[in-house]
Amino acid sequence: MTSTTVIDVDRLNLSYGGFHAVKDLSFHVQKGELYALLGTNGAGKTSTLETAEGHRAADSGTVRVFGRSPRDRRAVRSRMGIMLQESGFSPDLTVKESVQLIGTLSRRTDRVERVLDIVDLKSKSDTKVSQLSGGEKRRLDFATAVYGQPELIFLDEPTTGLDIQSRDALWQAVDKLREDGSTIVLTTHYLEEAQQHADRIGLMHKGTLHQEGTVSELTRTLPATIRFSLAAPAPEPLPLLLRSDDRGKFLIETFDLPHDLYTLLGWAHTHGAELRELEAGPTRLDDVFRAISAD
Ligand SMILES: Nc1ncnc2c1ncn2[C@@H]1O[C@H](COP(=O)(O)OP(=O)(O)OP(=O)(O)O)[C@@H](O)[C@H]1O
């Protein structure tokens, strides 16, 4: 652990009765990072985050947040903002009262108007929580992460149920929090969001950390793909390894996409082969994810 380590998880184990949900999990998050903990359903992400948030005790192993036990609430609680999958605000409170309550509970200081502005709920300030739409409730949940600019922010599936505009606005707000120095830990099933925003990703499956790294470190372990079909049977064999994909198209898997795409186009030009539905792209995080989920 270094002086810039905000979260240090070392050989964490968690069980529910006889079920071993998190197995010898180790990872760390550095100051200013956006770390995405991704994984299959039931992989153990929420259980792990709950432990780092101080809501759950480890069965064995250690979890340190700002160098302290997260169970030491007085020392660490006011330094973290936690956006749960559901915050459970009282339905009878107004939006403004709910945000004021966040302030009281978090013991951080902020201006309620500023927070309402960031989560775009100013116009709903006097509306009761029970009357908010699903997306508006989610934006109110986000206020718990924004209020008082905490040093460490947990975002548990923050964009679920948000329309594209609200998603963009949330990510803009997250980018701003990061510019101002906050460290972010994210879980999401929207892999493209993690691919776009995370500095590092931990991929969990069945309670263990399968892979960890930057997006490019994770994706470079799998080949990029080129897919196409032919208008007529090929006049000459293509000098590249290819097979059929599950949609009956030709599939080339390559670790040198520009070179092999160039070869394919040259071959098609030389032999007058008409390529149809041509798609070429680098490996996406989805592909890495599918590869570990297949285990
Ligand atoms: N209170 C509980 N009692 C018994 N089993 C539990 C309990 N909470 C979680 N589990 C089990 O522990 C495993 C890990 O659950 P967890 O919620 O941490 O996974 P997750 O990665 O967050 O999943 P998801 O992506 O589906 O939200 C799952 O198999 C789940 O059924």
Automatic annotation (TrEMBL):
CDD domains per record: ABC_DR_subfamily_A
InterPro entries from the entry?
Answer: AAA+_ATPase, ABC_transporter-like_ATP-bd, ABC_transporter-like_CS, ABC_transporter_ATP-binding, P-loop_NTPase
Can you name one GO molecular function term for this protein? ATP hydrolysis activity
Report the record's Gene Ontology biological process terms: response to antibiotic
Entry keyword annotation includes Coiled coil: no
Topology with respect to the bilayer: Peripheral membrane protein
User: What range(s) does the ABC transporter domain occupy?
Assistant: 7-231
Coarse class of the protein's main subcellular location = membrane
Identify the GO cellular component terms for this protein. Answer: plasma membrane
**Where does the record place it?**
Cell membrane
Name the UniProt key words of this record, in alphabetical order. Answer: Antibiotic resistance, ATP-binding, Nucleotide-binding, Transport
Tell whether ATP-binding is among the UniProt keywords: yes
Coiled-coil stretches, from where to where?
A: none
Q: What is this protein called?
A: ABC-2 type transport system ATP-binding protein
Q: Which organism is it from?
A: Streptomyces wuyuanensis
> Highest lineage ranks of the organism?
Bacteria, Bacillati, Actinomycetota, Actinomycetes, Kitasatosporales
